[in-house]
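Help!! Second protein's tokens look totally different from the first
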Amino acid sequence: MRGWPFLLLMLLAITTVFATPTEAQSQPAPVGVADTLRLGLAGLGNAAWLTGQNAAALPHWQSRGYGLTRLTGYQTAGPLRRPQEPVRHQSVGLHTEGMRPVGGWWVFGEFDYRKTADTQLAFSHGYDPFNGNPYLWADTLTGDWTRDHIRARVALTTPVRGRWRLGLALPYHVGQGSRLLDPKPFYRFRDVGVLPSVWRQVSARWGWGLVLGGQFTQEENEVGFFTVRTDNPLLYRMRGYGSFSQSPIVSAERLVRGTTWLATAQTEWKTGAASWGAQVGGRLRHETIREGIAAPQAGGVFREAAAHARLSRVQPRPGGGWRLAAQTDLRQGRGTDPILSSIGPTYLLTTTRLDYDHWRLTNERFRHETTYLMAETMQYSDPIVRTDWSALRLMLGVEVLRRWGTAGNGTGWFGRLGLGVRYVPTRSFVALRPTRLTTLLTRPDYVIQTTSAGLLGGSIGRDFRLNNFPKLLHRLEVRADGQFTAKAGQRSHIYLTYSLLYL
């Protein structure tokens, strides 16, 4: 990661340029613009850019340039956690983004840096044990981790040529992390995407777009190279939901390479004052694992196919509006194990969600209510150890946001309260050939994912301006969310955020 300082400075410079208001924006924004912009940033509209990274549709998402900078502190803790989650997770982050017109072009830039510390983390030597790939490295030691990750994205849209616009989005993610406890596992992660897109505005009331692209991932793992202990533990090479192989740790290297191809088709149209949006898409993901450098061996092949569909309607009203959105997602993954010469673990996940939002905007008050209903099905199977488990999980929640102002310029106090429930009506678990990891990992993970829980959250904050800088809207917010169960305990999430919105 020797190039990090240069990359950090370059991306900060890019996003600073994008976030700097233009001369036309040097005066305070008109009344209501701040809340209107925040509705767009929250995705309360039909936005092909937000739902499908269609850079060609950037001008249809926001018609006014803006900049946003955010500092965030975050902590989550509590016993209601999956076995591969830390006892406590803490992070601090810097996020900045902006969009502005340059001639007939529109340019968007985004940069995010996050420093995290995980306390008492087990069963994971890599970046993300929950990304679907079942082929993982781990030992049974529990230790503290430190991580640094940078995410960035640049997107641009060409000027209108007839009814066409072309766009390009370039997402980038790089990171590294290590455990502080010997034998000190270490990882480096990189993900680069290239997402060209097109948007055709057929008429004033109808347009359509298409995104085709790919993302390319590489993760390098090392363990045992910097250890001073002589009683090294066993290294578990997980091969599914309870299946594994093991060996003593001296030193080992591992390389995961992945490619994801994706396609998304989108359309937006109007009927009267209402705005409609529809989207369908899918992706194919392929990852290979190689272990060792001098004499590399195949460590597994993972494939995942995913599809999604979305339909939404936004109905503006005098001083407000409402939105109804439905979305369904499907993921199917399968591993092929070259060592055990068999089809490895498989899973099938489906999610269907319905959201209803209603908001009202006045000079000194903003009100927003949200209701959501979600149904999830989960099916996991590992034929090697003859383990199968499945569940149906339902979630229902409501959330109320209120802002009361002291002046009609977007400032004032605001508060949010959310209530919900997660209910698991059906579930089953069968392990006919259990192993040690079935007891330590697979079954506890199943129990946590299939436990019914109550959901409670809230926040309070203030938007304000400083007299010497009237075009900057400041926000300070404290937010807390939690999950509560009768037998498995609770898990809390606390955020402290300070942000600047350039209008």
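Here's the second one for comparison:
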Amino acid sequence: MKKVVCNSVLFILLFCSGLFALPGIDEWMPTASGEYVYYRDYTFTDESYIGFLQYDAGTYAVRYYSLGNTSDKKNPIPPKDIQILLTMKKDSAFVELTGEKIIGELGADDVDIVNYLHDLVYEFNARRKKMNGKDFSKSLVSTEIYEQFGGEVTMTYKGYIPLYSLDAIRNEKGDLLFQAVTIGTLLDSSDTSFADFAGFKNLTSLKRVADKKANLDEFWKTNDNIVYSINNKALYMVNTFTFEESYFSNLPYSLEDYFIRNFLTSTEGDYIYLPFVSIQKEKGERKPYLLLTSTIMRTEESMRITKTKDAFQKDFKVLIRENENSYWLCTLTMENDYYNLNKSYFDNYLKTFVLP
């Protein structure tokens, strides 16, 4: 199959409105209204997640969600969902809460969780503030004493993660205690993807299967010579766009950094699993390119609309710099099981038709 080009200009509205920062934090890449991040918290015995959402300047949400454990029929642990809306003093050098609202009813045993969420808001903000001025274009590691997580820990930061830029917390042995699992953005006031997030409980279904090593070239179909697909199982398209590179000359991050944030941002309830993400940047004699590989957990509604049966997708996005101000944006996406079944074909397809 030949490379198909859709000639278009990609208009990126960068930081036009709705950009705020947590108190005292100088963000390397600003967090926009509606952006959020979820973490898996391994300090709980049952599978638990904690999310942070930025609504606007001074308004945030923090949510605790536990899958519970119903395997023990005698003493089942039901799922638990606690969300707190917080308002903070604007333009403050540190967190000063001016109000809060707890969504839902709390039990007597939920008070400790609420206090824990408060502590995280204060601690994460204070520790991230100490990282102001660092170069977040690469991973940063800080070794600290954090009693809430058992003593000495290493905190890893990555600039593309919104709000605190926090990626993971590990103990002295290197065991994960806290890990970013997905970032996302609310598209409008009716978007409930932050409140609906219920963890990545289906990851065990991601089983490797034997590669058929088949040639699928003849199965690609198109109606417009722009988007090609294979029976709703795989899709490929390429766009070209122009962008004035000088826009980033006075910013600490590049166009590639900006695209990493956006390529990895989940929308409309389809959640990208960050621990499986691969980021590859290539420079040199060949044309520079950025390759992002990710695994996406689909919602039932999304699966219905796209007529797919697999709850997970494999997604490849490639940003190629053709010349000054000119870029190619390539997308290759398919059902995860279909990718594993034809891994050698799609890996070679990337090398042959997508990568420069």
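Reply: Different proteins will give different token patterns, so don't panic. Residues 1-17 have pLDDT under 50 and may be disordered.
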